């Protein structure tokens, strides 16, 4: 587990030579990307949510990176990941798998490797705003920095875009 105040993703990104910014907001339980966007004056579409899915049997798990205002297609994620049965992880399991509390989960600095799949349209944005491993802290990065997580880009968007 990571201690309060560390914002591990920022340290990891900086150590890798990435130009990274830091934004802070007041974390609200269940506020999600909508609340973070409102507080920071950002477009929710540019905020990346890091979602953990598992097979429900304690076996395989993956992380999906998606626009804050969009939903992940389980069918597309299963096909892209090769894991036939996925479901959203419980908050407890997501924390166990990532080392981060829900609301601060990010794809950087995981305690053990977790396959990461990113919605391909994230790479079309100029800047991304992603949790930094601590609730209430956002790392501001170029989309290319997602390569440090080993993210595989693909179409995992549910239905049509909401935009």
From TrEMBL:
Domain YbaK/aminoacyl-tRNA synthetase-associated: 34-147
Alphabetized Pfam families for the sequence: tRNA_edit
Organism superkingdom: Bacteria
Molecular functions (GO terms): aminoacyl-tRNA deacylase activity
Name under which the protein is recorded: YbaK/EbsC protein
């Amino acid at each position: 587990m990571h201690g309060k105040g560390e914002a591990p993703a920022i340290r990891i990104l900086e150590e890798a030579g990435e130009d990274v910014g830091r934004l802070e907001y007041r974390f609200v339980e269940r506020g999600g990307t909508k609340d973070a966007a409102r507080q920071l004056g950002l477009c929710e579409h540019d905020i990346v949510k890091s979602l953990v899915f598992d097979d429900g049997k304690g076996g395989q798990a993956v992380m999906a990176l998606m626009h804050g205002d969009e939903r992940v297609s389980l069918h597309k994620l299963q096909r892209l990941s090769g894991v036939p049965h996925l479901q959203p992880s419980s908050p407890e399991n997501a924390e166990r798998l990532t080392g981060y509390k829900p609301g601060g989960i990010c794809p950087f600095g995981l305690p053990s490797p977790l396959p990461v799949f990113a919605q391909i349209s994230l790479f079309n944005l100029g800047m991304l705003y992603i949790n930094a491993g601590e609730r209430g802290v956002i790392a501001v990065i170029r989309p290319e920095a997602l390569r440090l997580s080993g993210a595989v880009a693909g179409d995992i968007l549910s239905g049509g875009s909401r935009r």
